[in-house]
Amino acid sequence: MTQKDSEAFYGPDFNALQAQDPDIAAVLISELVRQQKNLQLIASENFTSPAVLATMGSTLSNKYAEGYPGKRYYGGCEEVDKVEVIGIERAKALFGAEHANLQPHSGASANVAVYQAFTKPGDSVLAMSLPHGGHLTHGSKVNFSGKWFNIFSYGVRQEDELIDYDELRDNAIANKPKMICVGATAYPSLIDFETVRKICDEVGAIMWVDAAHFIGLVAGKAIPSPVPYADVVSFTTHKVLRGPRGGMILSKAEHAAAIDKAVFPGMQGGPIMSAVAGKAVALKECATPEYQAYAKNVIVNAKALAADLEKEGMRAVSGGTQTHLALIDIRSTGVNGKVADERCGASGIVLNKNSIPYDPETPAVTSGIRVGTAATTTQGMGVPEMSQIASFIARAIKDGGDENKAKAIRSEVNALTAKFPIYAR
Ligand SMILES: *Cc1c(COP(=O)(O)O)cnc(C)c1O
What we know:
Layout: H1 3-20, H2 22-37, E1 39-40, H3 50-56, E2 67-68, E3 71-72, H4 78-95, E4 99-101, H5 107-118, E5 124-128, H6 144-148, E6 150-154, H7 165-175, E7 179-182, H8 193-203, E8 206-210, H9 215-219, E9 232-236, E10 247-251, H10 256-263, H11 273-286, H12 289-311, E11 315-316, E12 325-329, H13 337-346, E13 349-350, E14 352-354, E15 368-372, H14 374-378, H15 383-399, H16 403-418
Parallel strand pairs: 1-13, 5-6, 5-7, 7-8, 8-9
Antiparallel strand pairs: 2-3, 4-10, 9-10, 11-12, 12-15, 14-15
């Protein structure tokens, strides 16, 4: 996209910004160009639609709306009330949920609300261990969860790198957690929600699914839903789901009042109504056959990418993927995750280093990389492109320390992404 095209995309508002603040306007353009030219393989990122972007740059941003539709603490909420009611109804219909709260500012904020709704500081919570793919909010010592709660962790088996449900059950019986969390940031397989429900019932724990990564695949009916099993499901709206940056919580009707109170006034002040509108728009998009086809293709592409990287001599953790992301053990290349991440970046491939289960390296170095296909699939890439991408990654890891070779890979990457333009008009 040329600069002129970017201006056309952002419309008169962008022209106003450019006139008033060329420094920031220039960054908006160069960031768009960065997203267009490089390969975006970060598993938690995607390209949201122009319709969603339009809501986020709208005057809904100006409105204070503390409270919930029909029960606000400020006047003038009659218009934003409509947006939130439509969004809640869409969320309940799409996921078959009894209750939906669209106000959390982010996935982490949604999780703060979940803890607050069901636990008190000092209570025991069982969640996936961070080195095995759990999120910061699942008990990291530097996060509120690890500071304020008594966290017990479960992990994956060394042999097959899958969740060990027997260990999870033994752990739950021994430690009697108030709440059990499943869901992770770097777990390529599906989770057995039925088994987790049984364990929760056996020990009397709340079943919390942190579906931030995979909820978009559930929305697109490409993988089984946790909603029938879980007491509460929290997630982000900007990963595979492809909506605005933000969080959301679904729950059983019996927990509705506790969840709503935990979000406001428990954790937040006014909701970001422009983002709530964006969530409503994204939920409508998710209900279309096009999105369902997209969600299936995301998985097809991730499986292809993992298999292609194995052909390049690397190892897919747990033998591959059933979702949108793959975790790749790159020890066979002799290069660690940190260096691989840097070399890929220099070659126009944006991904992240990631610990693998039982990683001998520190979290700052790691033995792995994490790749996801949400963004490239939105661009329209398919299985043939995945094999090209796998070869770019392999070359970048092996040769990317050499500036000229990195430059050569980068120009091939740019040629590929040019065939799949985003935000073009
Ligand atoms: C991304 C993620 C979050 C946090 O989302 P933010 O919007 O970055 O706060 C929480 N839990 C899991 C499992 C995630 O993957």
